[in-house]
Amino acid sequence: MANDSMLKFVGREQAYPAKRAASIRAEDFREIAERYAPPAAEDQAGRCSQCGVPYCSVHCPLHNHIPDWLRLTAEGRLREAYELSNSTSTMPEICGRICPQDRLCEGNCVIEFSGHGAVTIGSVEKFITDTAWEEGWVEPLVPGRDRGQSVAVIGAGPAGLTAAEYLRVSGYEVHVYDRHDRAGGLLTYGIPGFKLEKPVVMRRVERLKAGGIVFHEGFAVGEDASLDDLRRRHDAVLIATGVYKARNVDVDGSGANGVIAALDYLTASNRKSFGDTVEAFENGALNAEGKNVVVIGGGDTAMDCVRTAIRQGAKSVKCLYRRDRANMPGSQREVANAEEEGAEFVWLSAPLGFEGGETVTGVRAAKMRLGAPDASGRRAPEVEPGADHLLAADMVIKALGFDAEDLPTLFGTAELGVSRWGTVLVDGRTLMTSLDGVFAAGDIVRGASLVVWAIRDGRDVAKAMHQWLKARTSTAARERQAA
Fold it and tell me: CB 207: neighbour CB atoms within 10 A?
């Protein structure tokens, strides 16, 4: 079919899938928008300009072949579009839902620069892969020829699951160890259902299990087995645990009842969505119902907390952030969604302390102003003297990001090398840690990052492990021949 289905961005307006009304969607944890009907998806894909230098692909961490599968979608060749999308990503429908496209592919779309509105890349990606699941185009995971070697993957988040899939396809026996009772990591317990419904994650996990990957859920490395134990059991080990240690707010009252970590809060909410009994939710400690909630932070985790509190029936929800809207790290789309649902943003404000003594009753905040740019290029916030104010709060959620856990101590392996920030040191070429045959991926190497980066890291480290294991096998074979 000719390419006259493309280049429609002048006469065809940008249109995302319709969102449910804010008043309705704020009452449940379903995703807020339905996917396109086929003609609408094909129309929107046809807006792509097919530019010679596709900045969308350049700025995608996975370097997805975006213009190519947009063209295939516009031509109605959905199965081919899915297969091409799937060739560079193990979880395209998940990326289509939760990637910050406004900062990556769509934010760098050429027609966005021309004022016509970016191609709705994420929504089309979600559409073609959901269609593939419904039509049975998603192939089972087929293991490669058995290599007689086994690999341990510590952590069942996006990096670990991606690496496990690539290694299994390469013919390795793969065991995934995770401390949670369900695989998926932040996809399962960190990201709320209104952004990523859990059956979408679970069907990916089930596909890996059906492909022969062995999952050891509820398995805490360092308690159920040490890292050295896993090294003895397996030919290679991948550490893909992510970063879960919440950054603290170093102000008076930070230890008061009602001051909680974002991930604890989100995990409890997601467990309730699975139907689990969660004592801390039932007793109100991690339940925002009827409370004045203040979320501290301006990233995507903060947005998840704000929007979860609204759905739990909070009396009021405020997000406190020390910079202005233009300088926040989180997705502007998420801010807009939160505002539509009733959240209030208190810009240029930072906590000075938590009032109430043993149990928090309020947040004393300083008014901020933006000064000179800091090392990252963003204007640094400065306290504006004499402009303190008080916000009522029965629950304060700390959403300031995450740091690496003390993995050498946690895993009982003191010789595992780490940086001064606690992140695991790896060789930039081999991706191996200071321990022979132990590799590391994703967040634990450079600190917290986006899910799409974790998927890319899982892909890259699986390739590095494959090369190392092949070389090890070849060396052993030569030694046997020489003997």
Answer: 18
Between 113-122, 356-365, 446-455, the lowest mean confidence (pLDDT) is in: 446-455
- Whether residue 260 contacts residue 461, with contact meaning beta carbons closer than 8 Å, is answered with no
Element of type H or E holding 306? helix 300-311
Say which DSSP state 296 is in: E
Interval 319-342 mean pLDDT: 93
Given 3-state DSSP classes, what are the helix, strand and coil percentages for the chain, each rounded to the nearest 5? Answer: 40, 15, 45
Q: What pLDDT score was predicted for residue 1?
A: 40
pLDDT digits (tens, 9 = 90+) for 298-308: 999 999 999 99
Specify the DSSP class assigned to residue 106. Answer: G
**DSSP three-state, residue 291:** coil
* Inter-helix orientation angle 78-86/121-135, to 10°: 110
Structure tokens at 355: 């009032």
User: ∠ CA 405-406-408 to the nearest 5 degrees?
Assistant: 135
pLDDT of residue 479: 63
Higher pLDDT, 1 or 11: 11
CA distances to 66, 109, 328 from 296, in Å? 36, 32, 12
The pair of structure tokens assigned to 224 is 């159920």
Angle of CA points 407, 410, 413, to nearest 5°: 75
pLDDT at 465 over 50: yes
Rounded Cα gap, residues 453 and 60, in angstroms = 9
CA pair distance 449, 100, nearest whole angstrom:
12
Residues with Cβ within 8 Å of 255's Cβ and at least 6 positions away in sequence, in order, are none
Three-class secondary structure of residue 141 per DSSP: coil
**What are the two backbone dihedrals, phi and then psi, of residue 19, each rounded to the nearest 5 degrees?**
-90, 145
Tell the residue number behind the tokens 């493309």, with chain if given. Answer: 6
Q: Where do we find the tokens 């213009």?
A: 67
423 conformational bin, left if phi > 0, alpha if psi -120 to 50, beta if neither: beta
- The DSSP letter of residue 461 is H
Predicted local distance difference test score (pLDDT) of residue 2: 43
Q: What is the pLDDT of residues 379-397, one digit of tens each?
A: 889 999 888 999 999 999 9
DSSP string, 387-433: --EEEE-SEEEE-S-EE---HHHHTT-TTS-B-TTSPBP--TTT-B-
